[in-house]
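Lab intake sheet, docking and co-folding queue.

SAMPLE TYPE: protein with bound small molecule
LIGAND NAME: zinc ion
LIGAND FORMAT: SMILES
REQUESTED OUTPUT: full 3D complex as C-alpha cells
PRIORITY: normal
SUBMITTED BY: R.K., bench team

The fields below were copied directly from the construct record.
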Amino acid sequence: MKLLSREQIENLAKFKSNSLLTTSFYLDTSKNRMTKKEIQLSLKNLIRRNTKYLEKMSLSKENRESLAQDLENIQKFCARNLSAYNYVGLAIFSCSKKNFWQEFNLVNSPKNTIVFDQNPYVRPLSAFLGDYHRICALIIDRKEAKWYDIYMGEIALLENLKGDVPSKVKEGGWEGYESKRIERHIASRLHRYFSTAAKTTFDLYNKNKFDWLFLGCSDEYASELKPLLHPYLKKGLKGRIKAKPSDSPSRLLKESLDLKQKLKKQEKEDIVRRFIAEIEKGGLATSGLKNTLRKLNRGEAQTLLVTRHFSKPGRICPKCNLLFEDELRCTSCQRKTEKVVDIIDEAVEAAMVKRSQVKHINPPSGLRKYGDIGVLLRYKT
Ligand SMILES: [Zn+2]
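RESULT FIELD (auto-filled):
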C-alpha cells in the first residue's frame, strides 16, 4: 500500500512480536538514478550482507528460522514485483513466524537498509511523512482560475472557473463619460469574479483540508484577491509561485515543490532557533539523549527534534516500554531492560504514539551542539 498517513506508521509501530524479531527492509528503487540491473544488484548485495550477519547473531532456532524466512520472502516479493514497480522506494516489514507482513510504496527514496529488531523500524517512514503537506495551488488571471491539489509529489486539477473579464476599455469611439462607466463596470465584474474565486477556495479547503495555499498570479491580482480570502486561508497562504492558468501541470508541480522545499527548510530553521532559545534561557526545552528519553517516557514532549540519520543503541523496558540510554533496570518496574539497535528509532515511535510532533532536522544544524536530539516541552516541570 501507499504510505499516506501517520496512523499507518502508528499501527505499524504497535506491532510487537514478543520473543521473535521483526525484519524491516528498505530499498531505493529510483529508476531515475539507477537502471533495473543496478537496483537488482543492490538488492542482492543487501540480502547477502544481512544473511551473513544473521548467521553470526546469537539467536534461538525459531528466531533464526523466522528471520531467514523473512529474507527469502522479501527476495521472492522483489523478484515478482520490482521490474514493473513505479515508486522510488519500497519498505517491507515481516515477521514470518507471526504471519506478519506489510509493504509500503514510497514516493521518497530510502537508504538501503535491513534491520532485525523487536519491532518495525519506522524511523525512515516517519521522516518521509514529515515532508508530506497537502497543498492547494490557485492559479488565476482575469480570464480563468484553476485550483490544483498537490500531494506526495503528484498534482491533480480540482476545479476551474471562467472569468473572461475584459482587460480594458477599447480605444477610440467612446466618449469620456461612457469609458468611465465601462471601466467601473469592468472593475465590479473583476471584483465579483475574485469573490467567487475566494469562496470556491474556501469550499475546496472544507472538502480537502489542505495544509498550505499557494497563489499563482500577478501582484495586482494578489492584492485584489487576498482581502477576500477567509481568515483560515489568509493564515494558510504560504507563498506565491510564478504561474499562469495556461501553464502545464508538470510546470506548476515543479514551481510548487520548489516553494515547498524552501518553506520546509525555513520551518526547520525556525524550530531549531526556537529550541536553542528555550534551552539557553532554561525554558520549555531539554537536550541530549538522556534528558530527551526521560521527557518522552513521561509524555511531556510536545515536539521531538532529531538530526536525520543520527542513531545510537540503547535499552528498553519490555514491560512498560520505557526508553533508556544505559539503565540496566527499568526505573519504574525494576525489570531487566533489553538492548535495542537504535534507541532514536524507539524515541521517534514513542513520540508518535504519544501524539508529539517529530521534526527530522537535516545536518548541519544548531542541534549538533546539543547532542543531536532534544524536545520542546508541553509545560514546565
Ligand atoms: Zn518497566
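REVIEWER NOTE: Residues 284-381 form a domain with the 60s Ribosomal Protein L30; Chain: A; fold (CATH 3.30.1330.30).
SIGN-OFF: pending second check by T.M.
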